[in-house]
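Researcher: Next entry in the queue.
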Amino acid sequence: MSAHTPGPWKVSDLSKSAGRYLLVYQDAEVNEESGPIARVFPAKGRDANARLIAAAPALLEALEKLTAELSSVQLEAVREGCGNTNAACLTLRVDEARAAIRAAKGESNE
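Model: Structure for this entry, 110 residues:
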């Protein structure tokens, strides 16, 4: 599997696209070499969807850092020390984050 285009990604200026669609791109300007990463067409939530797509590299990096810090050994220690369901909930959420990371990287979630 190939790696994604490195971030940061940006959303085009609305005036450049004449309101038809937004472009998400890596470089300061979209050009023939880089091209857009995504075109987000008019629909409810278009601007929010474009911002979410543009934030993807930073979100992935943040999740990777978070899950690396919260190893399963640390989570087990938290669970044993707390003795409550908050630790179990945290373990579940970290597992969900790891699954999201694998999905973003095109890796198996099995």
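Model: The chain has a mean pLDDT of 76.
Researcher: Noted, moving on.
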